[in-house]
Amino acid sequence: MNDIDHLVKAIDPAPRAPERGPGARELRAEIMATEPARSRPFRVRTRGFVLAGAATALAAAGAVGIGLPATGPATEYANAAVAIKKAADHFTVTVTDPAADRERFEEAFRAVGLNVTVKIVPVAPGKEGELIGPVVPGGFRWHGSVGVQTVRPCASAFCGKVWLPSDFPGRVVFGIGRQAAAGEAYVRDDLATDSECMTGYPTHGRTVEAVRAEVLRRGAKIGYRLLWSSPGGGWYEQSVPAERIKADWIVAGCRPYSSDTMEVYVKPGPGAGPAPDPRTVATPEWYDD
User: Fold this and answer.
1) Which of 64, 155, 168, 184 has the smallest C-beta neighbourhood within 10 Å, fewest atoms?
2) What are the distances in angstroms from CA 181 to CA 186, 194, 285?
3) pLDDT tens digits, residue range 148-161?
4) Residue 175 in contact with residue 132, Cβ under 8 Å?
5) DSSP secondary structure letters along the chain
6) Dist. CA 54–CA 221, nearest whole Å
7) Is the pLDDT confidence value at 209 over 70?
8) pTM for the complete prediction?
């Protein structure tokens, strides 16, 4: 947990409000995991999925945009928006038309037995069509794990593996990335690596003064978030005005906030005051109802 830049490649389990970290998947795992042994990428702990019967699988496999199977969950389903196929311990998801109505995505998830809400959300350039999440409102309390792994190469808009127990009784929220309008805030997913944040300029460990100068030199606006350590372990964030930030405090990382604004995450330094109650600084997220 000493180097936040090493945390962004970990799996993104279900957040549980209000303690939300800066969006880095590993931070979320530390803050919000509900099991003593936390999930890690590609090491998904599961006791097995509920499989559709053989007759159901044969009847429903390969259904293409034709209504949901009446006899039970399918093992695979496809329509003009997305194709989903159930494997032994995960689902493969291929997004073919990210501009499709969200109802088409939800239709496919329901066909394979998952209670999924899909939201079409603005994302940074290059992330259009990507599957974001999964998020379990209220927290994930079930066997196994939840997460998404992008698969490349991919001939479609997005190819990936989704870990989600097929017998999970709760509702899950996914986002499908769309092109953001000029100045529109991107959906917050990961704390960007330095190469994604400002090419050629590592921000982690630098002073606020140095990073601010570089952001302004590049013609962008800047926003700030304080990154507080949670007493129970993990981190949570607080959006603050520029006057709250001291020039010699240290930057933990950054994220493009929109097409014209960079968001900088700062470790509270001397004079920052007591940490706020996480419940008072929580802000609505894209997956909130």
Assistant:
1) 155
2) 9, 24, 18
3) 999 999 999 999 99
4) yes
5) ---GGGGTTS------TT---SS-HHHHHHHH--SSS--BTTB---S--PPPPHHHHHHHTTEESS---SSS--SEEE-SSEEEEE-SSSEEEEES-TTS-HHHHHHHHHHTT--EEEEEEEE-TT-TT-EEEEE-TT---SSS--EEEE-SS-SSSEEEEEE--TT--S-EEEEEEEEPPTTPPPPP--PBPHHHHSTT---TT-BHHHHHHHHHHTT-EEEEEEEEEPTTSSEEEEEE-GGGS-TTSBEEEEEEEETTEEEEEE---TT--SPPPHHHH----TT--
6) 57
7) yes
8) 0.69
Q: Could you count the other beta carbons within 10 Å of the beta carbon of residue 267?
A: 18
Residue carrying the six token digits 């088409």: 104
pLDDT tens, 19-48? 333 334 443 333 333 332 222 222 222 222
Q: Judge whether 237 and 22 are in contact, CB under 8 Å.
A: yes
Distance of CA 224 to the CA centre of its chain: 20
Confidence of residue 189 (pLDDT cuts 50, 70, 90): low
Q: Which residues neighbour 262 within 8 Å (Cβ) at sequence distance 6 or greater?
A: 197, 198, 215, 220, 221, 222, 223, 254, 255, 256
Q: Does position 199 have pLDDT exceeding 80, yes or no?
A: yes
Distance, in Å, from the CA atom of 128 to the CA atom of 186, rounded to the nearest integer, reads: 11
pLDDT at 166: 86
Whether 166 contacts 75, CB under 8 Å: no
